[in-house]
From TrEMBL, chains A, B:
It comes from Campylobacter aviculae. One of its GO terms (biological process) is riboflavin biosynthetic process. GO terms for molecular function: diaminohydroxyphosphoribosylaminopyrimidine deaminase activity. Pathway: Cofactor biosynthesis; riboflavin biosynthesis. This is Bifunctional diaminohydroxyphosphoribosylaminopyrimidine deaminase/5-amino-6-(5-phosphoribosylamino)uracil reductase RibD. The lineage of its organism: Bacteria, Pseudomonadati, Campylobacterota, Epsilonproteobacteria, Campylobacterales. It holds the Pfam family dCMP_cyt_deam_1. Transmembrane segments: none annotated. Residues 1-147 form the CMP/dCMP-type deaminase domain. The gene is ribD. It comes from the Bacteria.
Length: 327, 327
């Protein structure tokens, strides 16, 4: 069953893939001493609780609904350490990445597990990050069993975006097509898919689009569906910026920087576009995010040869989406 | 969490969708008295154990690996009733369909739950079948808590093929396309997808294909990937059967009936074909089974307007497949 529980942790983490930037996506499942599932949670956003603390606080609320918990991660960590009443004695955790052992924006998760009396921690991938690593050693020193390598390949797939943006630049291409492969123009995917795309827009350093998209779709390119910050833009076009109709909504966003080439400081960059844009840039992309509706239609398809290997696929309403590497 | 466990039961049942013909697809999750997951199982094939017995025997083996169990469903049922040593006392089950209360090819599942001392049974959909219904009442009479309606809509979706073939005819269209919507000819999908399709072929009453497919692909249309029985065929073509090259492998299958119109006795009928076949028959289909690879290519797509609503989607290796209704 350990693979089953790790898969639950991985699935939960993938739901927040990209949204945790600049942190890695991490998932955590907690079982009580009788192996009842108490929580399946993930790290959701930089600055919020790590996956482990998020799962533990969810379990705490379930076991003691009468106690209200502080919201802020440091205060939450301290409160749980003081008020756990041994409710996690003998508990088991499945974490997709080795728990951190350093005080960052939040206190170390390895310490939290040991304070609460966890019996065993299953880990998918060892943390190689110089600052955060060593959680497994810490746990063992404090008498907690640790087992590495559960669904390790899948755990490493989950970390791919993080390892890229941590070392330099991570480039993601977003494409939305019908089930029969045709780009449907401005609104192709359903509200759930577009909300996920807006959440990504709200955390990236730069959104790259082509002049064609701007002229045809006259888009806003903001993050309104999640009430997030509109991303800075880079417009790649043969035409000068001044040549575009300045009434197109994307030019009206306050405090937005608009570039015509990619600034070096941008580490997480999303490209959005159709067939031509994909053709021009597919070879420099790290990953592809492809939304596909459940509609067969009678429009021409995208005809670009591209062998993709899915790292993850899921559904958002009636849409399918996948995160792919090119082969 | 009850929806979470029911979803696990539903997911497991969908893996065997169509393969249980003429029985319904049913899934069952068993938790012990401490709510630890003991089994996630489904009914896999007519004649084999019902989902409930399959899950209970899986859990039995896990708890008592030293005891070897009989294989045949009736013997298995009896053996477990005699040797359970109260290991299921206080256990909980999640079943996607009300447990049967009648002696069919196998003994009633409701009786099994009560003999083993289960505490509570969660059920998605009430069984309206005159022969099998009444399991919930039976359980309550024997002091077991019963709760109906957990993920009922999803449970009803799972039963749609069964309700069709039970009342008359069920027609399924199988299509395999690339991610960019083009039918790739004979082999489009990967081995896992084709094995699932072959398993379906091995249980259906009739496979319907067009003359075009036969002339171009020269197929065998058997169920070799699952070592199953090759289905009877109906060839819909303007040309007479005698006009086809009789060396095409499909004509070499021993004991295969080949029709030129659909015999009335056929209740589960699968149509396989490409764009033209889909265009001609889409309006008379009950459901669509669509395999989609993870490849964008430069071939023309299927251009048939068809709004589909997914009942279920999953992955088989790098392929996606979905079971859809037309809207
Ligand atoms: Zn941490
Ligand atoms: Zn039964």
């Amino acid at each position: 069953m350990k693979e089953f529980y790790m898969q639950l942790a991985l699935n939960e983490a993938w739901k927040y893939q990209f949204l945790t930037y600049p942190n890695p996506a991490v998932g955590c499942v907690i079982l009580d001493k009788n192996e009842k599932i108490l929580a399946i949670k993930a790290h959701e956003k930089a600055g919020l609780a790590h996956a482990e603390l998020n799962a533990i606080s969810y379990a705490f609320k379930k076991l003691k609904p009468e106690i209200s918990l502080p919201k802020e991660a440091n205060a939450l960590h301290d409160f749980i350490c003081k008020n756990h009443q041994n409710m996690f004695k003998g508990a088991i955790a499945f974490v997709t990445l080795e728990p951190c052992s350093h005080q960052g924006k939040t206190p170390p998760c390895a310490k939290l597990f040991s304070e609460l009396g966890f019996k065993k921690i299953f880990i998918s991938v060892k943390d190689e990050n110089d600052i955060a690593k060593g959680g497994g050693d810490f746990l063992r020193k404090h008498g907690i069993e640790v087992e590495f390598g559960i669904l390790e390949k899948e755990g490493k797939d989950l970390l791919k975006p993080f390892l890229k943006w941590q070392k330099g630049q991570f480039k993601l291409f977003k494409l939305a097509i019908s089930m029969s492969g045709s780009p449907l123009g401005k609104i192709v995917s359903n509200e759930l898919s577009r909300t996920y795309a807006h959440k990504i827009r709200s955390v990236i350093d730069l959104l790259v689009v082509g002049g064609e998209t701007i002229r045809i779709d006259k888009p806003t390119l903001d993050a309104r569906l999640c009430q997030g910050k509109a991303p800075d833009l880079c417009i790649l076009s043969r035409n000068k910026l001044e040549s575009f109709d300045q009434n197109i909504p994307l030019f009206k966003i306050p405090n937005r920087n608009i570039y015509t080439e990619i600034p070096e400081k941008a580490k997480f960059i999303m490209y959005e576009g159709g067939e031509n844009f994909l053709k021009n840039f597919k070879n420099e992309m790290d990953l592809f995010l492809i939304f596909q509706s459940s509609i067969l239609n009678n429009k021409k398809n995208v005809t670009i040869p591209l062998n993709l290997k899915p790292l993850y696929k899921n559904f958002l309403g009636s849409d399918t989406y996948g995160i792919y590497e090119s082969e």
